[in-house]
């Protein structure tokens, strides 16, 4: 059972090898991939004793790598099942409703306000204690509380700025104001630098996520003849997704537009995706239309 990256060209085989090569039963959905066709083979345990420490260590390392490989395959199959549910039901399992999202936003605002009030009271108390005791330890603790208060102020300012979008100055909203709660953290905590650096440079999504996207795109519509490109890269805390699909050359414009638009909406329902771009073409032999910037 192998995993391969999405490739250009004709309609490719599934990313996981099917358990058999039987033809799918006839029906309206016979053109779609079926997650039930994929399964992992049972792993056989090792037996016997090996007194050679070197060989035993090699066997243990090999067994560990095999176990990690199958765990990765299981996670990939779980992702395929999620994409299957979205295709059948039109929604992602575990996603929040609009009312739940509003309630979550309200709870977050209350938590920010409560944190700010608590930090302000604590800071005032420590300032008084520093003046009275003149202890360096208390003064250091007061400065630490000041930093906490500053962090809370940044969260409050960002949340209020994001609630008041300006479609003329910010056509796609102010969600990217959050990397500003990141610049402050980068200068304060080195650990956060290591966690966010990849998200700031446009790093590609992991192969498992690209495989999930490919599965979802292939099962989107029967008229999709080829998947030319599937690209996802970080842009802040979420991914930008670029997809090139091939439709029949003689397809009417309105039908091709509807296929592309519904696919874009479906991709943007994924919680990891901020925006999706779907490009429609009638052939796949052309060169890439965008060059990589140096």
Automatic annotation (TrEMBL):
Annotated Cation efflux protein cytoplasmic domain residues: 215-281
InterPro entries documented for this protein: Cation_efflux_CTD (IPR027470), Cation_efflux_CTD_sf (IPR036837), Cation_efflux_TM (IPR058533), Cation_efflux_TMD_sf (IPR027469), CDF_Transporter (IPR050291)
GO cellular component terms, semicolon-separated: endomembrane system; membrane
Principal subcellular localisation of the protein: membrane
Membrane topology: Multi-pass membrane protein
Annotated keywords: Ion transport, Membrane, Transmembrane, Transmembrane helix, Transport
Signal peptide span: none
Cation efflux protein transmembrane domain span: 113-184
Protein's cellular compartments: Endomembrane system
Chain intervals for the UniProt region annotation (Disordered): 1-29
Highest taxon listed in the record's lineage: Eukaryota
Pfam families: Cation_efflux, ZT_dimer
GO molecular function: monoatomic cation transmembrane transporter activity
Biased composition (Polar residues): 1-10
Similarity comment text for this entry: Belongs to the cation diffusion facilitator (CDF) transporter (TC 2.A.4) family. SLC30A subfamily.
Alphabetical list of PANTHER family matching this protein: METAL TOLERANCE PROTEIN 9 (PTHR43840:SF2), MITOCHONDRIAL METAL TRANSPORTER 1-RELATED (PTHR43840)
Identification of the protein by name: Metal tolerance protein 10-like
Lineage, uppermost ranks: Eukaryota, Viridiplantae, Streptophyta, Embryophyta, Tracheophyta
């Amino acid at each position: 059972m192998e995993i391969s990256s999405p490739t250009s060209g004709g309609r490719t085989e599934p990313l996981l090898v099917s358990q058999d090569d039987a033809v799918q039963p006839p029906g309206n959905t016979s053109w779609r991939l079926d997650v039930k066709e994929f399964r992992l083979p049972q792993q056989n345990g090792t037996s016997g004793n090996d007194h050679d420490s070197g060989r035993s260590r090699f066997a243990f390392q090999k067994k560990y790598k095999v176990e990690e490989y199958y765990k990765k395959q299981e996670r990939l199959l779980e992702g395929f099942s999620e994409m299957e549910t979205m295709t059948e039901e039109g929604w992602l399992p575990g996603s929040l409703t609009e009312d739940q999202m509003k309630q979550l936003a309200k709870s977050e605002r209350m938590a920010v306000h409560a944190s700010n009030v608590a930090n302000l009271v604590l800071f005032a108390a420590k300032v008084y204690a520093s003046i009275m005791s003149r202890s360096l330890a208390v003064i250091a603790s007061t400065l630490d509380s000041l930093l906490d208060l500053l962090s809370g102020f940044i969260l409050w300012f960002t949340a209020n700025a994001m609630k008041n979008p300006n479609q003329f100055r910010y056509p796609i909203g102010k969600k990217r104001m959050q990397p500003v709660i990141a610049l402050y953290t980068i200068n304060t905590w080195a650990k956060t630098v290591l966690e966010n650096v990849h998200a700031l440079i446009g790093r590609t999504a992991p192969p498992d996520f690209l495989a999930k996207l490919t599965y979802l795109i292939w099962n989107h519509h029967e008229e999709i003849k080829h998947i030319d490109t599937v690209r996802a890269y970080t842009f802040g805390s979420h991914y930008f997704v670029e997809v090139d699909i091939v439709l029949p050359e003689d397809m009417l414009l309105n039908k091709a537009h509807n296929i592309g638009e519904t696919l874009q909406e479906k991709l943007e329902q994924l919680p990891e995706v901020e925006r999706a771009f779907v490009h429609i073409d009638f052939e796949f032999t052309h060169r890439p239309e965008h060059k990589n910037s140096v």
